[in-house]
Amino acid sequence: MNDCQCRDCQHKSGTGHGSYLTFPGKKGVQLKGTATHWDIVGDSGNKKTRAFCPNCGSPVYMTFSAMPELFTVHAANLDDPGRYKPQAVTYHLRGHAWDHLDPDVPKFDRMPPA
Ligand SMILES: [Zn+2]
Q1: Domain that holds residue 10
Q2: In terms of DSSP bridges, do strands 47-52 and 59-64 run parallel, antiparallel, or are they unpaired?
Q3: Is 52 exposed, middle or buried (0-12, 13-18, 19+ CB in 10 A)?
């Protein structure tokens, strides 16, 4: 679970960061309906595919060309979003002073080291 402050996540969320859960695959993740997709190049230089609801425009999930096994869901789309507890902040170097995040959560300028 992570908050990401990259410019893409700021643009997509309309605020200071996006909040995500990343799973090691789609297995165990239940999605209802059909999403529409578009591709962008993230701050890392790698392609991201974003999925959104074609009816309301809400962002739903993301996949990454550089790590095709990963499946990332937007925290607000959980059945119980209150269970979201970020464990890291990524792309903190892009963060804005007004975007206050939990000081106890580890922050990485870009992605955490592999
Ligand atoms: Zn991001």
Answers
A1: 2-23+32-94
A2: antiparallel
A3: middle
For ligand 1, the distance from its centroid to the CA atom of residue 7, given in whole angstroms, is 7
Q: Ligand 1 centre and the CA of 94: distance in Å?
A: 9
CA of 30 to the centre of ligand 1 (A): 23
The total number of structural domains that make up the chain: 1
Q: Are 8 and 42 in contact (CB under 8 A)?
A: yes
What is the CA(6)–ligand 1 centre distance, in A?
Answer: 4
CATH code at 18?
3.90.1590.10
Q: Residue-wise pLDDT tens for the chain (114 aa)? A: 999 999 989 998 999 999 999 999 988 888 888 999 999 987 778 899 999 999 999 899 999 999 999 999 999 989 899 999 999 999 999 999 999 999 999 999 998 887
CA of 43 to the centre of ligand 1 (A): 8
Distance 20 CA to ligand 1 centre (A): 9
